[in-house]
């Protein structure tokens, strides 16, 4: 092995000395390796074969019933100084954290194979990409990382060239919720995760690297690592605008990234291109615009609700070569979840389906699929330079108050809109569902440092020469008095994107309000949509009294970040609050 890989070789030896595996397997990312691991897991029962006639190359994995989502209360950011992790993170002193988790790793791979996974987040040849190596004892993690990242020989070659990489150590452990920790050491570019085999807890390239450590690196190096989808909207003239949107977990990123235009739009020549569905890394280019890449190579998407009517692109993507986790199965062994036609016979835990036990598929059940299988996958997603971003969109699940769409007056106001984001909690993390919480920029569970510093970093992009995207806020989830969503959502969301693009191009006037610019009458195109006029009015209605209360609450929330809150953001909140009080 050459010298630059010595650091890696030494680290692998050191981990092996602690975890004591019977065997070490260096992953090359080949098809042969993937298929061999699948065969092995079919044998051990880690994977179950699904109907190969209807779903060739598809398998089911059932995780431990106590291990079905991210565990935010067991996720730590371990910076040298507690203050640097911020009130938005759980903190532990690095020495204590290492001691605590290293004790769990002691001998944990005895008799088993340790896999070494070199991976690259982002196109292999992109200057925006970053590499890492995950060590794990889970073959399920290996096959998922192979789909979700550029994994194997090419990544190892880049690591050899660069000589540095993020170190991730993972063991599924004994799945005891009492012995489960996801620890991040941003200053050491190290992750240690023990006791969970699920998603963001175990596929370390995703949330742990690309967001928690990524956001920390991004701040140091002058870029942004965000919980955002990236989508290209091509108009009938053939011009494409790229939009990045931050919605909290299970709030519609995958769906918006794969949007299918409504009938009339399709006929007129509108097209939508998928670049990414969960994570976005962006940095200013030489022309002052923000350029974005999707660091991932696949989708780890929410299964329930995915259907021919809501997201046909996703459904097509997952018709073959897909790993399903915690879905139900039908009598003829096809994967099933709530929202699909047909009936489940076996639930996500492998029990005969009984509605008394709750949903057949776990609400956070997921599919893992290569992005290349998506019919709308954009060739630009492989572009080393990334795509220029025309608009940034924030949004969340807000049953009331927040209008369907509004536009920030400028960057500072947009940063306030992002910071003020709130959303009802979902099944993507353990804990109560449907509780309103602040989730600034959809990064509450993922920002690897103090939110005050993070807001300051966002504000810093507004400087001479910058050609920043416009910032918007959307809410697909406003409900009427009957408790039903007012807006049909999904494909129809293109109507809202069209208005945003018209604003970007200076083709829509909008109406200014103290909280932002909303569409003027007739600017939102509603042809072919059966939406009563008063429903639209309700969707963009602004309730001044409700907003006064909201601004008050936003002010209190911002104050919780103490000294590190940039004064400019607090002033912006006061400006908006005062504007609301004007007659
Ligand atoms: P993560 O992968 O957890 O980060 O989630 P995500 O943001 O990608 O969410 P996803 O697109 O998977 O959507 C989650 C849920 O929201 C699904 O049940 C969807 O059916 C639902 N959803 C998505 N878009 C819309 C919409 O426009 N309107 C409504 N009402 N529901 C939506
Ligand atoms: C999310 O929770 O935002 C996800 C799923 O995308 S996980 O990878 O588990 O974090
Ligand atoms: Mn996500």
Task: Note down, in words, how this protein is organized.
- This protein is an alpha/beta fold.
- Helices cover 29% and strands 22% of the residues.
- The protein contains 17 helices and 30 strands.
- The strands form six sheets. Strands 1, 4, 5, 6, 7, 8, 9, 10 and 11 form a nine-stranded mixed beta sheet that branches. Strands 12, 13, 14, 15, 16, 17, 24, 25 and 28 form a nine-stranded mixed beta sheet that branches.
- The radius of gyration is 23 Å and the shape is globular.
Structure class: alpha/beta
Which cofactors or ions or other ligands sit in this model?
A: guanosine-5'-triphosphate, sulfopyruvate, manganese (II) ion
Helix content: 25-40%
Shape: globular
Q: Low-confidence runs (pLDDT<50, min 5 residues)?
A: none
Task: Please give the number of β-strands.
Answer: 30
Distance between the termini: 73 Å
Major sheet summary line: 9 strands, mixed
Mean residue pLDDT: 97
The radius of gyration is 23 Å
- How many DSSP H or I helices? 17
Cofactor: Mn(2+)
Pfam families: PEPCK_GTP, PEPCK_N
InterPro entries: PEP_carboxykin_GTP_CS, PEP_carboxykinase_C, PEP_carboxykinase_GTP, PEP_carboxykinase_GTP_C, PEP_carboxykinase_GTP_N, PEP_carboxykinase_N
Pathway: Carbohydrate biosynthesis; gluconeogenesis
